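Hi V.,

Quick status before I head out on leave. The structure for the redesign project is tokenized and pasted below; the design run finished overnight.
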């Protein structure tokens, strides 16, 4: 199917986005030549936003998973590749970890979530729990063993109903 045909089968918001992107002038700083599918995605966007935008743009021409299960399968594949790369050193592991993060953005997109909002929520949860661990250990965090900190962490999670 042609890219126009795939775009025609996309949801109305995606079709509107395709028309908007292909009808607007090329923005300053774009790395792709005019008329390229990814050409409208600015290279200056923060990494999570750019990953989301690149994937969303590729989806307008049908380069996307049909359902969440496919994205999750790809995530499992990338995590397995990361596990294997960890034994080869930091360089290969960094590349594979980047692939894992890219697929995590795809999973967020397929779940209708903004990955930036998800990271903000995860950061908030970590801060809240870490502060509670610090409170449980009564100011002796620097002297506490990792086992003590982990036990306090698990107690905090249980208190939140997550353990």
């Amino acid at each position: 199917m042609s890219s126009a045909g795939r775009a025609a089968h996309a949801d109305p918001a995606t079709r509107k986005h395709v028309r908007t992107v292909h009808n607007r002038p090329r923005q300053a700083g774009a790395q792709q030549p005019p008329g390229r599918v990814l050409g409208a995605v600015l290279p200056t966007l923060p990494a999570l936003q750019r990953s989301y935008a690149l994937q969303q743009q590729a989806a307008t021409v049908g380069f996307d998973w049909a359902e969440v299960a496919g994205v999750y399968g790809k995530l499992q594949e990338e995590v397995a590749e990361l596990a294997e790369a960890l034994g080869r050193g930091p360089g290969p592991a960094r590349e594979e970890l980047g692939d894992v993060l890219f697929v995590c953005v795809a999973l967020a997109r397929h779940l209708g979530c903004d990955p930036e909002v998800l990271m903000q929520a995860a950061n908030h949860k970590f801060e809240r729990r870490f502060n509670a661990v610090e409170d449980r250990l009564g100011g002796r965090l620097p002297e506490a063993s990792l086992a003590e900190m982990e036990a306090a962490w698990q107690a905090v999670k249980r208190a939140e109903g997550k353990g």
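Above is the designed sequence. Residues 115-136 form the longest helix (22 residues).

G. will cover questions while I'm gone.

Best,
W.
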